[in-house]
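Chain entry —
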Amino acid sequence: QVQLVASGGGLVQAGGPLRLSCAASGPTFSTYGVGWFRQAPGKEREFVARVSWREGSTYYADSVQGRFTISRDNAKNTVYLQMNSLKPEDTAGYSCATGVWSSSLENVDYTYWGQGTQVTVSS
């Protein structure tokens, strides 16, 4: 059973940085990918970024491209989301998810979800 624990959320001023962590535990990750999602009150959950464990391939939503960076530390089974130049519209609950990575689709079949961590950006 794969378990994910997200942390690092908090209150930050607009323009500031914040780094989220997603610590994973379970049987195997070499063929997996991890994604970050966010959901603001009254809005649907949206994709933020994803990374493949093996190759480190990364993909971003247009809304965060150039501001957010996703990375992984295979030794620690942890994925990070470095968020810079934060905007009030980035305020949301952020959660991570994992599953098998599809090289052909360059996407993840998300199977396991962690709990969220709240990010609040003040103007």
Q: What stands out?
A: The chain is about 0% helix and 60% strand.
